[in-house]
Amino acid sequence: MLKIDVHTHILPRNIPHWKDTFGYGGFIHLDHIDACSATMMRDDGHRFREIEDNCWSPERRIEECDAAGVDVQVLSTVPVMFSYWAKPEDGASVAKFLNDDIADHVARFPKRFVGLATLPMQAPELALKELERCKQNGFAGIEIGTNVNQLNLSEPQFFDIFAACEQLGMAVFVHPWEMMGQADMQKYWLPWLVGMPAESSRAICSLIFSGVLERLPRLRILFAHGGGSFPATIGRIEHGFNVRPDLCAVDNPHSPRKYLNRMYFDSLVHERSKLEFLIALVGSDQIALGSDYPFPLGEETPGSLIESLDLDDSIKEMLLHGAALNWLDLDKAEFVAS
């Protein structure tokens, strides 16, 4: 059964020391420990994360995919690389560098990889230029953060980017980053455990309440980590909309529940009951296999949770590849050997 993993992250093997180029810091580079491991470092000397060569080597990724039975990975950058805080032209240069690396992997292994581009969202005009360039270079979509320098995705300056994605047929993958309140909850890894799920709900509610999803009905948008806390709190969100329309319905008169069939989610929810709940809420045709490969909060064997459920093969096929193909607007024949 074909497996397409929509949520995987990749980095270039060698990342420039952007501080030397741009004259200011905050950027990530890799300090290679040996041929198979490296440390992601901020240029202020702060260690971000230890990684292995499966984070940059397509050959290693394919080897591990084969062992796990994954046929296709959708590649996107590690969110810390978004660099939305950088000066506009510098952010555009970083995005172009990261996107060219992904494009190279896809060109070399077109049946194994699909590319999602990153954009300099802090500069919408430059983001639109990079979006159009990446469309021409064969990317299937983009990856963006749940906020841009703490601005919600509902802000008017971002609408043209979403509209261009709809017009160009580019899928949108929304991944949490720069979690609100993270400075106040550094202990116990709470930004990743509490902040990330809340960030996804923040992004979804912003796009619903602002009317972005209403105005762009053909936008194909997918949210990481099963939509974070949004699916579990849709009842509260809908109730708030109903009882306080003066606060919630100011830009869009329609109930949040209307948009459940407008969104895709990945399957990375870590427990059977949560995945069963998500399937009951939105349907298997809106849930795509996602593993967060190759990081520790991900699913060690991609698709194992889906395969553990007592479901008809047709539903499992939808979860393992059908929804992904619909979201990406791709044909299964592109990845199946003739």
SSE blueprint:
Layout: E1 4-10, H1 18-22, E2 28-34, E3 37-42, E4 47-52, H2 58-68, E5 72-77, H3 88-108, E6 113-118, H4 124-136, E7 141-145, E8 147-148, E9 151-152, H5 159-168, E10 171-175, H6 190-209, H7 212-215, E11 221-223, H8 230-243, H9 245-248, E12 263-266, H10 272-282, E13 287-288, H11 304-308, H12 313-328
Parallel strand pairs: 1-5, 5-6, 6-7, 7-10, 10-11, 11-12, 12-13
Antiparallel strand pairs: 2-3, 3-4, 8-9
Helix pairs in contact: 3-4, 4-5
Short description:
The protein is of the alpha/beta class and 338 residues long. It has helices at 18-22, 58-68, 88-108, 124-136, 159-168, 190-209, 212-215, 230-243, 245-248, 272-282, 304-308, 313-328, and strands spanning 4-10, 28-34, 37-42, 47-52, 72-77, 113-118, 141-145, 147-148, 151-152, 171-175, 221-223, 263-266, 287-288. It is 40% helix and 18% strand.
Keywords for this structure?
3-stranded antiparallel beta sheet, alpha/beta, 8-stranded parallel beta sheet, 338 residues, 12 helices
Mass-distribution shape = globular
Strand residue content = 15-25%
How many distinct helices? 12
Q: Average pLDDT, to the nearest integer? A: 96
What's the helix-strand series? Answer: EHEEEHEHEHEEEHEHHEHHEHEHH
